[in-house]
Design goal:
two-stranded antiparallel sheet; elongated; alpha+beta
Length: about 100
């Protein structure tokens, strides 16, 4: 999607025409990169907005549990993808019974 906007005083540009489509609102941050002879803008928080899910409370809780499981050795190693697939299939069958 390409939009053309006029540069205003002090080199300001308005994102009003596309800001809403990208979820950009007043007070948000954007990353600005010089790329291929132009500017590339990407909405960000203190982390990339496309990774927002990672910083939710529910995902962080899952990450902490996974870290704890690794520390306590609560995981299984597989020698092949087919071995992993068999393990998953058995788990699905057990849940459906």
């Amino acid at each position: 999607m390409e939009k053309i906007t006029q540069v205003q005083k002090r080199n300001l540009i308005s994102l009003a025409t596309i800001g809403a489509e990208l979820g950009i609102k007043e007070g948000d941050y954007v990353s600005i990169e010089v790329k291929d002879g132009g500017l590339f803008l990407r909405p960000v928080n203190w982390h990339d907005k496309s990774q927002e899910y990672f910083w939710t409370d529910s995902f962080q809780k899952k990450m902490k549990q996974a870290e704890k499981d690794l520390e306590e050795g609560n995981y299984q190693k597989f020698d092949s993808l087919s071995e992993l697939a068999d393990f998953i299939e058995k788990g699905i069958e057990a849940k459906s019974e």
